[in-house]
Each structure stands twice: as C-alpha cells, then as structure tokens.
Amino acid sequence: MGRPSLAAERREQILRAAARSVARHGLAGSTQERIAAAAGMSRSHVRHYVGNRDELIDALWDHVITPYFASMRDALNDREPAARLPALVDYLFGPQMARNEDDLVIEALISGAMHDVRLRGRIYESYARLEREIAGTIRDAVPGCGQAESLQLAYALICMAFGHSTLAPLPFPATRQAGMKALAAQLLAALEAGHRAPPPPTAAG
C-alpha cells in the first residue's frame, strides 16, 4: 500500500506560515522566500504545493475568509426561516467576529487589492457571494421582500458587521457594540413589519 500524499498537510502548513507573515510584514513584505522560511521549506516547495505568487495569494484569501463564511452557514442551518434572522445578527455581531490575527491578513489583502485588479476581483467575488447568501436568508424569512431590497439590506449588514469588527480594538464604550447589534436587529424588524400582511378588515357594526 502506497504512502499517503502529504500535499494537503504541506499546503496547510504553507498557508499558515503565509498568514503569519502577512500579519507581521504585510502583503508586499511577504515574499515567497520569507513564507518558505517561516514554513520550514524551500521556495521550490512553496511553488510545488501552492503555486506562483498569485495562486498563493488566492489560496491565502480562501484560507482566512472561508471559515467565517462556513461558520455563518452552520449558525443558520437547521433553523426555521424566521429564526435565521436573529441567528444572523447574533453571528455577525457575536464573538465569532471578534478581532484576531486573521483580520490583519484580510485587511492587508483588501489593501493590496487597491493596486491589484485581479485580487480585487477575487475578493469582490467572495463578498458578493456572502451578500447573496445573506439576501437569500432575508427573503426566505420575509415573504414579499424583493431581491433588490434584500441585497441592499445584506450589504448594509456586511458593512456594519465588518466596520464594527474593525473598530473593536479601539476603546469605545461597550454600549456602542451593543447598540450596533441592536440597530441591525431593528433594521430587520422594520423590514419584517413593512412586509407583514395587514389584518383583514372587520365587519361594520
């Protein structure tokens, strides 16, 4: 029986090293040589297991962003549509979105995308997919909500959640954090109220 391939293990090792490097040195300072050294490998190993620099950056983006999107889906699965909106707010403004080293990597990649059209498209694709998923959750929970309206609200929630996470290290009062979550819940409640069927007219006395 042949020896199992170590490709997946080596790839994960390289991507963890790349994340540490980008968090510490930024995207421009994270050369393949530096990432290879951090992973305890040669540059040729990095190219073999992950690919060229563009492929490495794409893989790194997936490495840091996919767990957030996957855990959001897990938080919403197996719930009735009406229960998904409170769960969505809890997720977007809960401990899952707390600041960690991944945020430094995500921010470095988004910053790098300002000067890299290819990377910008790659990142946009991920966030546009997240926007569509949240919008679909909203439409499932709020009958009558149209696509344009749900996408607009999904975009607002994403901006609120990621902006909230970005400012979390600053010494704003805890009431600001609670208030942002409450505001998101109010937006969704207002949407539900706006699409709630009016009560049937009562018979004249």
Automatic annotation (TrEMBL):
Residues 8-68 form the HTH tetR-type domain. Residues 31-50 bind DNA. InterPro entries: Homeodomain-like_sf, HTH-type_TetR-like_transc_reg, HTH_TetR. Keywords: DNA-binding, Transcription, Transcription regulation. The keyword DNA-binding applies. PROSITE patterns: HTH_TETR_2. The keyword Repeat does not apply. GO terms for molecular function: DNA-binding transcription factor activity; transcription cis-regulatory region binding. This is TetR family transcriptional regulator. It comes from Actinomadura montaniterrae.
